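Re-run requested by the PI after the first attempt was lost when the workstation crashed. Everything re-entered from the original request form. Ligand of interest: L-homoserine.
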Amino acid sequence: MGSNPTLSAILIPGADTIIKKARQVPLVLAGFGHVGKAFFGILQGKDESLRKRYGLALKLQAILKTDGGFISDSGITPEDFPDRPGQNTARSPLWKPGQTIESVLRTVKPGVFVECTPSNIQTGEPGLGHLRAALKAGWHVVTANKGPLAVDFKGLRGLARRNHLALKYGAAAAAALPTLDVGLYSLAGAEIQAIEGILNGTTNYILTRLGEGTAYEEALKEAQAKGIAEHNPALDVEGWDTAVKLLLIANSILGLDLTLQDIKVEGITRISPELLERTKQEGKALKLFGRMSYAAGRWKAEVSPAAIDRSHPLFGVSGTNKGITFLTDTMGSVTVTGGKSDPRGAAAALLKDIIHIFAPLP
Ligand code: HSE
């Protein structure tokens, strides 16, 4: 983290500690889809515990959509929406049509910009422009949107560093499954020799349902109904969502400088009924893996389906759950599983990253 003295850390241990005055942190949220709405809900539900446990008073001062924004100096609450949050926007007294992110970032005292607009891994937009504007205007950034990082990981990190701001993207790197935190913190000092992960809940869900005899289209619809498939589900099933997560993990933890072009990507769309049947007969499970392997002095990055047997640490990871295994020199093989893909889990990962900006681990 940078050296902004006004944002230095306070950590108050114990949920029942009385905080006389919690630190006010302005938030601006861009994108009010599944994850944005879940984030709004979590902020309300956890307001008191955030004040008590971390001394943080997170004040959501703007929610921006493509055609305008909800703006409030005192903080947006569910009462500000006559209907369900996000519906019939014009009926909210806070709604300002045409309001832009740039004007909000200029007028609100900087805190944390929370990016939840849909991922576009070709252009990175609109998130890329949002993140650049936020970092230039002195805002810390947490993002669930992978697009900007897929397109300009290095540039965004450089911009954040030069401006002494945090750029946190755990919510984009498998969200509720801790990947970056484990790799960067828990495995500090170990040499990571290989990484293997089930990083996409949609494809893992589809593969699990296919194994149970459900048709592909049906299984995809079910994943969409859960709110976890990407806006364009081809990103999930063709392996690109896994590839971006692998890129974020590899670049952050292994210190590489991968772009998407460096990753060989195959999704689950070419899995035949015969392969499914054979896998079942052999007592194996099909998984879509993101893998980093090291040989002959080079890292290789790839995304591809694989049939694994019971002895594999990720064999039991089914449905929308995910998992990651790190092979290390000193700590052996370390596996984390769970952290299912789910809008509330992604929102919780955004909150976790915000907490770590202001209340770093002791
Ligand atoms: N589409 C993703 C998944 C969720 O299915 O895991 C966001 O990363």
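Saved to the shared folder this time. Residues 251 and 257 are 6 Å apart (CA to CA).
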